[in-house]
Each structure stands twice: as structure tokens, then as C-alpha cells.
Write a structure and sequence with these properties.
Number of helices of chain B: 0
Number of strands of chain B: 11
Oligomer: heterodimer
Structural class of chain B: mainly beta
Largest interface: A-B, 22 and 22 residues
Distance between the termini of chain A: 30 Å
Number of strands of chain A: 11
Largest sheet of chain B: 6 strands, mixed
Structural class of chain A: mainly beta
Strand content of chain A: over 45%
Number of helices of chain A: 0
Strand content of chain B: over 45%
Shape of chain A: globular
Chain lengths: ~110, ~110
Amino acid sequence: DAGITQSPRHKVTETGTPVTLRCHQTENHRYMYWYRQDPGHGLRLIHYSYGVKDTDKGEVSDGYSVSRSKTEDFLLTLESATSSQTSVYFCAISELEGGYTFGSGTRLTVV
Amino acid sequence: GQQVMQIPQYQHVQEGEDFTTYCNSSTTLSNIQWYKQRPGGHPVFLIQLVKSGEVKKQKRLTFQFGEAKKNSSLHITATQTTDVGTYFCAGHGGSQGNLIFGKGTKLSVKP
């Protein structure tokens, strides 16, 4: 959707390497989220942010960290990638209790 | 913790048949949202229901929110091949927690 972009769209990385995914929005929304989507598990929340430098953990946060130094950018870092982190990662933005707008996703493969 | 269950997991229909997916929460929801994800795409927000017993329509799609605000349904009349995709419900708990997604119903439509 217009207003939210994710980069990269695809990435292959080796086990043990750090990886950073970027989410950029032009909507000035307060809330930003990182989800992972895996077959049989649906969408699971990794971390979310409710403002600059304000972040919190979701249900599957182990092995991930986030940062938000500007309203428009929300970074997801895999400290040391593992094969279990192979997934499709979606960023989303919203206002409080409004509908979420999702980015196009990043397909990450850890080999 | 709060859980949102969605059934069925898969539904195969002939074009022109109706389709319904059901969503049930373990706790009372402040609102429920529905999303559609086309194959290879990202979730797209369809609608939000807030009031007990609310019914909303979008062309051939009818959305309902239960009287107890713990269940919801999406009904598609006379399916078309363009309806193919996975439909997710997602609910906000009463404490204004994060959006919890069901695992989705994958709809396939045979022409």
C-alpha cells in the first residue's frame, strides 16, 4: 500500500549472521508493528512501537530486537539468524484501534 | 492469553456458491477487524466492527459481530474467482491490547 514500504523484499542470509529489516512509512502513524507469517501459524506479533523510542515485545520476540529513532522508520534486527527465523516478515502501521496497513513483506531465508 | 480461533482452515467452493468463515474469541473484544490476503500478497484491511450485533455489508460480503462481542462471521454471496485468498479476523481485547489474529481461512474458488 502507498505510504509504507519494506526493504529488502527478499533476502538470503547465513545462519549466525545479523540481519536488519527496514520499515518506512510516510503516514505519520504512531503505531508500527512487525509480524512474521508462517504456514499453520498465521500472523504473529514480534515487536511493536507506540512512538519514537517506545517499543515493546510481542508474542514471539526472542531472537529479535527493534529500534525506532524516527517516526517514519521501524527497524527489525535478527541478532544472530537461525533457520527457524526463515519466514515472511510484515510491517504494519495504524492509529489506535484502527485498521492496520501492511507493507508488502520481506521474504527471509536463513541457510 | 487471549486467543482468536477461526474456522474452517480451508474452504473449496464452486464459483457461484456461498462461503462463510467464523471467528471466535476466548475473551470479549472491543472490536473485530477482517483482512484479505491474496496469494503472494500482504493482508489488506477490509472492515472493522465495533458494536454488539453489528452487521455491515460491502457488495457481496456481509460481516457480523456477535451480541456478546466474542464472535464474528464473514459471508460471501455467490463467490467469484477474484475472491480467492485467505481471510483473517483479528480482534482487540477490551484492555486495548494489540490486535490478535486468527489463523485465517483459505478460500479457493473453482471456475
